[in-house]
């Protein structure tokens, strides 16, 4: 039986997580829903900024969706109180890092107007990564094509030479 594209992507991402030692996980959230849905227009510039600040740190990233209250986003702030308390699936990027990353100022990227954003770096233990892998096993990947404009990969690498890949 042949492997589905979805299963193959999941397997390759999980192998990248299993084959490396991750010291930090970095979540990148955006305050603009519209910016987030066009994330693939900006992803290479965001990753380039991270690469330039962290030449000796390897990253594997995953574009995913996060169930977020609407009032977090600029576009929904003028909605009525009850409506703004509702939830929306919003794009975010999760980076696993081989060392503590230096966080670039994304507002300095000149090729686009960066919305407000927030990094949440957290130290990772082997148990944390294993728990993330267990969660991946249980869930189907988000349907990002339905929520994001563009057709790039769901996951990728920054400073690939710093990583062990199979």
Key descriptive features of the protein:
five-stranded antiparallel β-sheet, 6 helices, alpha+beta, 166 residues
How would the blueprint of this fold be written?
Elements: H1 5-18, E1 24-30, H2 33-37, H3 39-53, E2 59-69, H4 81-84, E3 87-97, E4 117-123, H5 126-138, H6 144-147, E5 155-158
Antiparallel strand pairs: 1-3, 1-4, 2-3, 2-5
Helix pairs in contact: 1-5
Task: Give a short synopsis of this structure.
The chain is an alpha+beta fold and 166 residues long. 33% of the residues lie in helices and 24% in strands.
Describe the structure.
By secondary structure, the protein is α+β, with helices and mostly antiparallel strands. It has one domain. Helix content is 33%, strand content 24%. A five-stranded antiparallel beta sheet has the order 4-1-3-2-5, sandwiched between helices. The longest helix is centred in the first third of the chain and has 15 residues.
What's the Cα radius of gyration?
16 Å
Strand count: 5
The number of distinct helices, counting runs of at least 4 residues, comes to 6
Order of helices and strands: HEHHEHEEHHE
Task: Please give the largest β-sheet.
Answer: 5 strands, antiparallel
Note the overall shape. globular
How much helix is in the residues?
25-40%
Nearest-integer average pLDDT: 89
Unreliable sequence segments:
none
Which class of secondary structure composition applies to the elements? alpha+beta
Q: Report the sheet-strand fraction.
A: 15-25%
- Our count of domains comes out at 1
For the record, give the distance between the C-alpha atoms at the N and C termini, rounded to a whole number.
Answer: 22 Å
Strand line-up in the sheet with most strands: 4-1-3-2-5
């Amino acid at each position: 039986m042949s492997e589905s594209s979805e299963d193959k992507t999941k397997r390759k991402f999980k192998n990248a997580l299993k084959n490396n030692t991750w010291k930090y996980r970095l979540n990148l959230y955006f305050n603009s829903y519209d910016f987030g849905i066009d994330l693939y227009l900006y992803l290479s510039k965001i990753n380039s900024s991270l690469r330039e600040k962290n030449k000796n740190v390897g990253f594997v990233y995953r574009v995913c969706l996060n169930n977020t209250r609407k009032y977090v986003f600029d576009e929904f702030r003028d909605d009525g109180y009850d409506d703004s308390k509702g939830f929306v699936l919003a794009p975010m990027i999760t980076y696993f890092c081989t060392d503590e990353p230096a966080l670039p100022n994304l507002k300095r990227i000149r090729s686009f107007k960066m919305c407000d954003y927030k990094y949440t770096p957290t130290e990772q233990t082997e148990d944390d990564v294993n728990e993330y892998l267990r969660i991946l096993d249980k869930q189907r990947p988000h349907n990002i094509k339905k929520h994001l404009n563009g057709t790039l990969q769901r996951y990728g690498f920054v400073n690939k030479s710093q990583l062990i890949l199979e």
